[in-house]
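COMPLEX REQUEST
Ligand: zinc ion
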Amino acid sequence: MFCTHCGKQMEPTARFCPTCGAVSQPVIVGRAPLPGQLTRPRYPRLIAGVCSGLAVHYGWDLSLVRVICALMIVLTGVGLFAYLAAWIIIPEAPYTLPERSSAGSPGAIV
Ligand SMILES: [Zn+2]
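STATUS: Structure written out below.
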């Protein structure tokens, strides 16, 4: 592994460059979705996150998207294939770490 700042070789597990002190960039394995790309978020989701992804990406109301999706599946039947296709085509959003808050952990049971 090489430092992205100064180019010197550094330990693969090193978090900081020993030469210049720059923080080593995390290596992303696989294909990460681009920022702004349509993804299926892990939360909130009911089945596969297709409706949630569309609502988040285009700024639509999530409940409205789900109602329209359910109506298309029930009334036309085409919506089911569209949903399954979107489930396969749209990449899943990567796992994200929770935001660190300065006021302690919000989910802690005291
Ligand atoms: Zn360096």
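REMARKS: Residues 20 and 54 are 43 Å apart (CA to CA). DSSP finds three helices and no strands in the chain.
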